Amino acid sequence: MGLTLYVGADEAGHGSRKSDEIIVAAFSLYHGDGGKIHIPVGRNSNSAKNYLATQGKGWLFTLNGKFARESLTLEVPGLIDYWVRKNDLAKDDLRIASAFDGELNLGRQEQFKEEMRRRYNFSEDIDIRHHAKTQHIGKRKEKSYDSKLVWAADSIASNLFMESRKKINLRGHQQYVPVEN
Q1: What Cα–Cα distance (Å) separates residue 176 from each residue in 79, 107, 166?
Q2: Which residues pair with 161 in a beta bridge?
Q3: Domain with residues 3-172, CATH architecture
Q4: Domain boundaries, the chain
Q5: pLDDT in tens, 62-105
Q6: Global pTM value
Q7: For the chain, where are the E strands, in sequence order?
Q8: 144: which strand partners?
């Protein structure tokens, strides 16, 4: 396999059954974007969007009207497919390294892996990491992310959620992709 696509994903909806679940995936073809980072607690969607605005990087999101813990692992494969097609990447020469914000139990990890194997005919295991942790370092709070891409997805998802609370139509956003699973 030649190329590795690094993916970081998060969802926002904060358990609200009144609004759509927002699922964001951030993408990069650069190895350095797959490493752990520690940043001060707080989100900055403009910094995240600027970070993803270079060649070989990007982000997309979709909406899921059903609040379900499985939303993230069910919807992200469709976002990956769309990004791969949009960037003319060869599916059969691609490896996926993914990281998710939050706990993924073994069932959800397997669900994601099976869906990716079905779509990409992978014979090898798919790299999945998960869970961002908030920790105290001296008097500062920092959040440890499994990748810069998870930080970006988390920041953007939070911002989109705030926009949706202001009744902004997210389906008209240029990064929105309707995903069918």
Answers
A1: 10, 27, 17
A2: none
A3: 2-Layer Sandwich (3.30)
A4: 3-172
A5: 998 765 566 788 889 999 999 999 999 887 778 888 888 776 77
A6: 0.85
A7: 3-12, 21-28, 37-40, 57-64, 94-100, 127-130, 133-137, 140-145
A8: 38, 133
